[in-house]
Design goal:
CATH topology of the largest domain: FAD/NAD(P)-binding domain
Strand content: 15-25%
Largest sheet: 8 strands, mixed
Structural class: alpha+beta
Helix content: 10-25%
CATH superfamily of the largest domain: FAD/NAD(P)-binding domain
CATH class of the largest domain: Alpha Beta
Number of helices: 11
Shape: elongated
Length: 504
Amino acid sequence: MLMRSVSWDRTADVVVIGYGSAGPVAAITAAEHGAEVLILEKQRKAAHHTNTSMAGGSFITPVDAKSALDFMTALYRIGAGGISWTDRAVLRPFAEYLASDKEWIESRGGSFFLSPGPVDYLHLPGAAGIPKHRFKGLGVGLVRWLDGLVKAKGIPVLYEARATHLITNLRGRVIGVEAQVRQDGQERRLRIGASRGVVLAPGGFEYDEQAKLQYLRVYPTYSTGTEANTGDGLRMAMEVGAQLWHMNCLSAYMMFKFPDFPIAFSPDYLGRSHKRYAKGEEAIPIVSGHIIVDRDGKRFTSENLNGHAVYYELPYFDTHRLIYPRVPSYFIFDRRRLENGPLPSVTAGPTGPVRLYEWSADNSAELEKGWIKTADTVRGLARKIGVPADGLERTVRSFNRYCLRGVDPEFGRKPAGLIPLENPPYCAMALWPGTPATHGGPRRNGKGQILNADGDPIPGLYGAGELGCIYGMLYPGAGGHLAQCFASGRVVGDNVVKERGVIA
């Protein structure tokens, strides 16, 4: 929004839009350089929950910048015809910050522990040098720690303040923000000047239906993250001429989604016996079997899922029937999984520590809601979910035969997962394209500056976090988002304070 002259209601050196993790990290870093910082957050304080608070609290911790750079360089060329999703000039400084995230957090009192499990794509260069840690208290614990730092630095947070426009001067410099603010029960417009710069860190566009329809690879796509991520930052950046990147990229899941609850759920396919580690080393064996089928009742992938990439197998479109045969897909299981703990993850999403939804321990409440379909026979289950009974019955029969042989000739399922479906009731839940976070948004350079259509920095405008994050098509695995929020927030905080003070 171009303005010749502005009467400011409030000013600060740096205005940060969004109070998730990248936003407060940028604010803390700028404040440590002596800047006066103000954070705007659209949610009410009492109801504040973000993708960070709903996350599992993991963050990747490269042992050095070289490991991070080698891994990301290889990862970002995949699927792009040899062209990198993210420029090496951006990756290099980002890798350096990523490698020092752990030290930065530790020096400021963050409490975490080594988390079992590596990054995805271990065959790529550098991957072996990227362990991960997890915050005590998971995402909620991380938010509590960040909130304490923000308070200790004396950084004000203005809640119920929805940023609507970036304000630019005649030279095209971003000099402030216009926001709709609710105070004392009344809505009012505030114009807030930012003498050094504005940091866009409001999260992605997971709840902007038009943006998802236009930019993502398949529709619908649902989210396990906060409903506050409605694409505000995307629209503000576009209004001032920002170049966009990574718009069809995301952390690429399949999700449970039900019409009577607004947020999706991340499936826990194997239950409480899955990925639970004794003394951090020995994994407890899998005790229940399952398969994933399409709308024809056929398996189409190995159930040894890369849960952060399987979404990219879903956009196949049948041009004769005019349908996406894999939207929805179906999670098919039997009594053993039904009785093996809650069906969604209990460490992240709405059923994680934020407890936006209390999923019953024995799945009984969700059975009663009709969220889980059951039948005494496979044919009966097929009729309930609307897939061809012959097709589903044939698929289950073949899978059970593979289990007896210990070999899956179709998709190479690992032997540990070859547990037959033979204990009724047989159960099904729809699986939809989903994500905890979109990756697309305004393009950044190595300093976190947002670029215009010509590739030049828009003066006074920076980006951090999941809006236009550095990740392209492939996401490195659990812990990638929080790590990039720390790193990008620190990059921006270190650079925005170098701007010349201008609010006119």
